[in-house]
Amino acid sequence: MNRLLLTLFISVLVSVPQALSDMKEDQATVQKVFGSSPPMNYLLYALAPDKMIGLNFAAKNPFNGADPAYLDARFLALPVIGSFHGSGSRINLESLIAARPDLVLIWEDDMLVQTVTDQITKLGVPTMTVPFRQIDSMPDAMERVGDAIGAGERGRKLADYTRTVIAEINTSLAGTKPTRYYYAEGLDGLSTECDTSFHVVAMNFAGGENVHKCRQSNLRGLEKINFETLLAYDPEVIIVQHAMVYGDLVEDPMWQQLRAVKAGRIYLVPTLPFNWVDRPPSFMRVIGIQWLASLFHPEAYDVDLKARVAAFYKLFLGVDLSAQEIDDLLAP
């Protein structure tokens, strides 16, 4: 691990706060905040968990481990107010009004952004739209939201770390040939995402090329394919979403026909305390892209991943990981 680089990752650099165009409230009055979608609510957890008023869905779910060892007890006790998205609990506007939020964060890249904006605006609650789809958008979002909720220093600290990671990956992977990957979702591994879907932004950024070319037709994604199609794709790497099916895919004689499985290049997405890659595409992608780049391009992106995991969890989650905990996070 390069000591200078690690020091840069965890240091605070001075930057000029970005002016807000859609949030005029005095940040000192913003004490209660709600994210209308999971990416926004998880961003709140990284910046100021004490200002969160509710969750979009149960903290522990098939995509996110939410182990209490990694999370603040108050977060785990928050009520589920819901989300506008079909994959979670439907939004309870009465509960939202009763919680009296000072600000609601709206994910600008949401397919339902106009519907969400219209509904929240009718409640008379101040809103702030935040772009967070692309990896390059994350640092500015951290700063903007941090400034809006009175956590400007924290926002800049996380943004500086994230910009350093982004620059390092871009530099390391410059000139490399993208690694062809398949994203295995669903209980049979035969649900996946289109190459332009927001669900695979982290994988594409980390030097991957999705073998499944299509246009995302709905918010949830999860496009179905058959095994014959996957066999024709024959990806170099397979990224698996569900722990419950990972072992089945590795041991399935049918899947062992694929070169990724033959080569042992089939990997399970870490989900503690939140998913590193997707569902939701949150701030956890900052460590997710480092993990993915090391899998897709181990020679070009040759870093001490365990040290990176330790630094990320300390900075973003306030958690000191043991060596065993790091091994457990990275192991299938």
TrEMBL record:
PROSITE patterns: FE_B12_PBP. Residues 32-300 form the Fe/B12 periplasmic-binding domain. Gene3D superfamilies: 1.20.58.2180, Nitrogenase molybdenum iron protein domain. The keyword Protein transport does not apply. Residues 1-21 form the signal peptide. Keywords: Signal. This is ABC transporter substrate-binding protein. It comes from Sulfurimonas diazotrophicus.
